[in-house]
Amino acid sequence: MKRILVVDDDPHIRQVISFALEKSGKKPYEAKDGNEAVELFSRVKPDLIVLDVNMPEMDGFEVCKEIRKNSDVPILFLSSRDEEIDRIIGLEIGGDDYVTKPFSPRELTARVNAILKRLNNNNIEKDTVTKNELSQGNLLMEIDSHICKWSGKVVNLSATEFSILLGLLNYPNKVFSRDEIMNNSYDININISDRTIDSHIRRIRRKFQDCNCHTIIETVRGVGYRLGSF
């Protein structure tokens, strides 16, 4: 049973989310603020966090930054604001998805399931997976263990980032449009903007730049992205 940490300062929203998660076979744990979330995270070790952005004292972005110091657990942000800048910030600091209030509990549960599915690598087309490892040059991706390495050094990718890069590695010569990347990485019918995909790509590039790799993903102007030449 997957453990889900639900963080929101509104007890009614926590209750609605927890009920929906329980119905889908998950085990929810609730935190009413950021400080409690950080404490509960270290104790429970959840498989995913549903995290409200707009909380007093320690907001969701601060909680995410704190957790990202030691963990790449998937994070789904909740926010009452539908401003694109908030969405982009959430993804840039390590979020996997972003849902705006008011939301449908069914959609939220579907997004949680989609993230967990990506984490387990079950969304990869079965005819492209012939072995546990895929590699090209200095890039190695271990599918079952969800480990990515560059020149032997581990690159910590979120579930969505791992899925995006693995899709490119499966077809290293193919140029993927943003729509194709979205369809490969989000296996439910939801609205994802081009800027969301661009944010994930930027974050992947930034992580590889820290390993002295500056060509992990190439931009093909007017078309999309492909795996870089290295």
Low-confidence stretches: 122-130
Neighbour order of strands in the largest sheet: 2-1-3-4-5
Integer count of domains: 2
Q: What is the SS-derived class? A: alpha/beta
Distance between the termini: 41 Å
Tell me the CATH architecture of the largest domain. Answer: 3-Layer(aba) Sandwich
The quaternary state of the protein chains shown equals single chain
DSSP helical segment count: 8
CATH class of the largest domain: Alpha Beta
The major sheet is characterized as: 5 strands, parallel
Q: How many strand elements?
A: 11
Strand content: 15-25%
**What gross morphology would you assign?**
globular
The radius of gyration over CA amounts to 17 Å
Order of helices and strands: EHEHEHEHEHEEEEHHHEE
Helix content estimate: 40-55%
Topology-level CATH name of the largest domain: Rossmann fold
Q: What topology emerges from the helices and strands here?
A:
Layout: E1 3-7, H1 11-23, E2 27-31, H2 34-44, E3 48-52, H3 60-68, E4 75-79, H4 84-92, E5 97-100, H5 105-119, E6 133-136, E7 139-142, E8 147-150, E9 153-154, H6 159-170, H7 178-185, H8 194-209, E10 217-220, E11 224-227
Parallel strand pairs: 1-2, 1-3, 3-4, 4-5
Antiparallel strand pairs: 6-7, 7-8, 8-9, 10-11
